[in-house]
Design goal:
It is found in: Cell outer membrane. Residues 1-29 form the signal peptide. The structure is a single chain. By secondary structure, this protein is mainly beta. The chain is 11% helix and 48% strand. The protein has eleven helices and 46 strands. The strands form nine sheets. The protein has a 22-stranded antiparallel β-barrel. A five-stranded mixed sheet has the order 3-8-9-6-7. Strands 14-13-18 form a three-stranded mixed sheet, with no helix packed on it. α10 crosses α11. The model is unreliable at 6-33, 423-427, 434-443 and 445-451 (pLDDT under 50).
Length: 864
């Protein structure tokens, strides 16, 4: 993007800010009860006023979070411009993105681009940090690379969550919630002194809700007729120990468990394979005229179960020791966490019983982390300094499985026949048979008697196991030098070293793989048979059709070359990350800053079956991702410090961007040579002179694009046709504009009562929800609106909330996918538009995981 275009965008945002100043003119001569100075953050691992931190930070107070009904990180996105959070085939496959950049969460081999930190403890995958957050003190969303202080996997940003600590003042709170979809929840908390030096806090919650989807189950064995329900409970216990004035120790233990059904998807476009699905007795959404896009629906099809069970537990201990003689504090933060999850899946998203996973532990993963961080931070008149070290040991155990249903072989028979354009569709066992001559196979394909070969046995499939161990160590320092009373320079540097080892076994169960083996053995005969049956085809067309046929039979889960395949890989790598920032305070109200930051995301292994053509790839390794980021910002505190207006220009360049994408039959990881994002962030807060009335919001303009690349730039050039829409295009999940706005009102109305109101909205321009950028995956511009009205006692002993989320019932896609085995979108040759995509040849059925519908209810809260 040209710089002058960015400057025009900056000017547009500034005009909005000037308009806001006009609205707050009446506040100039008054001191409101709340000012910008009250906004405190720990973005640099020390408490500072938001306006003194040279970082883009969206800070959300406890009041803002309560008013917007934030219970988990997904709820957070309505308050944060430039941030999106999506889930796909399970709640573990959850991804947070900032400024259009994030890592798809379906594969635990990939670490996150957006770090999630809860009470100082890093959650190494987004999906393991998406539970009930409990009692919140505040949340800080830090945009841009934060590797110096928060570590290697924060190349796009950090979500820093701070929960309520124990108090020596006794307190109790409880709440009961009921809403539509039969939603109900109970939560309670108690805090207070145990001894003169020890305080405790205990929080527990239980929540349930019916599913958002109606599910057609067909012949089963699935019985559940709704999906994406909620059923979990959580508990967090804490101790705050103050053995002396200079020492504080905070101990936290937490546990949560979920037992739910998630996640089905709905057809957004049904392709020509609908005829094959119905021919074998299956059901799915009937196609629209001309196989066009379908109207929005929450009706899904699945004959197999989607049960998911997740268990999350952890311990942490944070000790802070003041050293008065050094004017410094030593901090030790230790943690242990264990997360495990299993779930079932209907992989064809129909009732045809093609391919599935069972929720018996055969699909899921377990993640165990041990971490230790040491920090020593202090200050002099001219220097704020910090040094530290971080160590972690992580273990991942992943189980993966696919099982054939009764419909797989007949479906493949009809599918192959349709691709061969035969009047009498072929059976799979005819193609894979040991026919001695091409004519023998032709006879079989046309229905004549011929040798037959193996098909795909019902209940057979694959069962793979992966085990990865990671050991990391890092040393870091972050220092701010006060060169003058107005000019500060911050220098940060971190060195991280990772050692990762992957071992695995890929195994076919029973006779699985025999069908592919038969097809590979008869490849030449199949080509000859195609030529005889289709005499008008050229040799190149015959070869392409034969390769397509064999490739369809030899998908990764059916390939005998994976049978009993042993995997053992290890790599070691180190990387520096760091930052340099200069900030200048023009006066008490305005600070400007410029910064450079370098961040990285660690290398890893794709824990999946990956093949080039029909040959398994020799290595599952993918390299580290790096980012260089530049920012220029202006932080304004105006009108007796009642107004905050922050503006930032950013320019980020990612190299070897780790793209995890589903190509219809497998997830592949490719390192895209370059991804850039450039734009403007703007945030404002206005504490008005009207008692209890405040406004806040923000705007992000982000031009996030893939760089130009060709097939030879990819790890596996054979993936290029499916990624040919990416070069030079806007990145997926990257709206050009996003904006948030909130208004909060809270004041006394007499008779010992007070009234509160909160309204939050988020607008996003259109964006593509697929990693391959196919047109059917485009989500139109949308607006989400949440609201809450509260009536309660002035002393806050009780309150009744009436609330609603997605009040306008906006219908939108989170993520769209290619339905497995159901058509194809890309062609085998380059099309006139320079890519491998031609709308006229798109036969793909598309499914989507939809966003939540309108929900509403009431919550009664009591406390003392």
């Amino acid at each position: 993007m040209r710089l002058n275009h960015i400057l025009r965008c900056t000017a547009s945002v500034a005009v909005v800010g000037v308009a806001a100043f006009g609205l707050v003119g009446a506040a100039a001569a008054q001191d409101g009860p709340t000012t910008v100075d009250d906004i405190i953050v720990t973005a640099q691992k020390r408490e500072q006023s938001l306006q003194d931190v040279p970082i883009v930070v969206t800070t959300l107070s406890q009041e803002a979070l309560d008013g917007a009904g934030v219970r988990d990180i997904k709820d957070l996105q309505i308050l944060t411009p430039g941030m999106t959070v999506t889930s796909t085939q399970s709640e573990t496959a959850t991804t947070a993105r900032i400024r259009g950049v994030g890592t798809v969460g379906d594969n635990p081999g990939l670490e996150s681009s957006v770090g999630v930190v809860i009470d100082g403890v890093y959650r190494s995958r987004n999906g393991v940090g998406f539970g009930d957050l409990g009692e919140l003190s505040r949340i800080e969303v830090l945009k841009g690379p934060q590797g110096t202080l928060f570590g290697k996997n924060t190349s796009a940003g950090v979500i820093n969550i701070i929960t309520e600590a124990p108090s020596f003042t006794p307190g109790f709170s409880a709440e009961a919630t009921y809403g539509n979809f039969n939603a109900w929840g109970l939560a309670g908390s108690i805090t207070g002194p145990i001894t003169d030096q020890i305080a405790g806090r205990l929080y527990v919650a239980k929540r349930q809700r019916d599913g958002f989807y109606d599910v057609v189950t067909g012949p089963g064995p699935r019985q559940e007729q709704d999906d994406q329900n909620q059923d979990f409970w959580t508990a967090r216990g804490q101790l705050l120990i103050l053995p002396s004035d200079d020492v504080s120790i905070r101990l936290i233990a937490d546990y949560s468990k979920r037992d739910e059904y998630c996640c089905v998807s709905t057809q957004v476009r049904t392709g020509p394979t609908y005829g094959i699905i119905t021919a074998i007795g299956g059901q799915q959404t009937p196609p629209a005229p001309g196989f066009g896009k379908l109207p929005f629906s929450r009706k899904a099809y699945a004959n197999r179960g989607t049960g998911q069970e997740m268990e999350d537990m952890g311990l942490s201990a944070e000790a802070n020791i003041d050293i008065p003689s050094w004017n410094a504090t030593f901090t030790s933060l230790s943690s242990w966490r264990n997360w495990s999850g299993v779930n079932g899946m209907d992989l064809d998203y129909t009732t045809a019983d093609l391919l599935y996973r069972v929720d018996d532990g055969g699909y899921g993963f377990e993640l165990e982390n041990l971490t230790q961080e040491f920090r020593l931070a202090g200050a002099t008149d001219r220097l704020d300094w910090l040094v530290g070290a971080f160590l972690t040991r992580e273990s991942i155990a992943r189980e993966d499985s696919y099982w054939y249903g009764a419909g797989y072989t007949p479906y493949m028979s009809l599918l192959l026949g349709s691709r061969l354009n035969l009047t009498n569709p072929a059976a799979v066992n005819c193609v894979t048979g040991a026919g001695a001559t091409p004519m023998g196979i032709v006879g079989c394909l046309t229905g004549a008697t011929a040798p037959t070969g193996p098909g795909f046995g019902v209940g057979q499939g694959v069962k793979d196991h992966y085990s990865q161990r990671t050991e990391s160590i890092a040393f870091f320092t972050n220092n701010t030098v006060k060169l003058t009373d107005k000019f500060d320079v911050t220098l940060g540097l971190r060195y991280s070293n990772d050692h990762k080892r992957l071992i695995g076994v890929q195994d076919n169960v029973g006779t699985n793989g025999a069908a592919c083996g038969g097809a590979l053995g008869n490849a030449g005969a199949i080509g000859g048979a195609i030529g005889i049956a289709n005499p008008t085809l050229t040799p190149a067309q015959i070869q392409a059709l034969a390769s397509t046929l064999v490739g369809t039979i030899c998908l990764p889960w059916a390939n005998p070359q994976f049978d009993n395949r042993r995997i053992s890989e290890s790599n070691n790598g180190g990387e520096f990350s760091g930052t340099i920032k200069g900030s200048y305070r023009f006066n008490d109200s305005v600070m400007g800053y410029a910064s450079y930051a370098h961040g990285y995301k660690s290398f890893g292994y794709n824990m999946d079956r990956v093949q080039a053509g029909v040959t398994p790839t020799s290595s599952l390794y993918f390299p580290s991702e790096t980012v260089n980021s530049y920012e220029i910002g202006l932080k304004n505190t105006l009108f007796n410090r009642s107004v905050l207006l922050n503006l930032t220009y950013f320019n980020q360049k990612f190299e070897d961007f780790q793209l995890n994408t589903f190509l219809g039959t497998a997830f592949v990881v490719e390192s895209i040579p370059e991804v850039t994002t450039e734009g403007v962030d703007a945030d404002f807060v206005w504490f008005t002179p009207v008692e209890g009335l405040s406004f806040s919001g923000g705007v992000t303009y982000a031009d996030t694009k893939y760089g130009n690349f060709v097939a030879s730039d990819l790890t596996n050039p054979a993936n290029f046709p499916q990624l040919s829409l990416l070069p030079g295009a806007r990145a997926s999940f990257a709206p050009e504009w996003s904006a948030t706005a909130s208004v909060a009102f809270d004041r006394s109305i007499g008779a010992g009562l007070k009234l509160g109101m909160n309204l939050s909205a988020k607008y996003s321009t259109e964006f593509n929800t697929g990693s391959d950028l196919l047109p059917y995956k485009m989500q139109d511009a949308m607006t989400l609106l949440n609201g809450r009205i509260t009536l309660g006692a002035e002393d806050e002993n009780w309150a009744l909330d009436i609330w609603g989320q997605n009040l306008t019932d906006e219908e939108y896609m989170q993520v769209a996918i290619n339905a497995p085995l159901q058509g194809s979108a890309f062609q085998t040759t380059v099309q006139p538009n320079g890519t491998y995509y031609n709308p006229a040849g798109d036969t793909q059925t598309y499914n989507a995981f939809m966003g939540q519908p309108r929900t509403y209810g009431m919550t009664l809260r009591v406390r003392y």
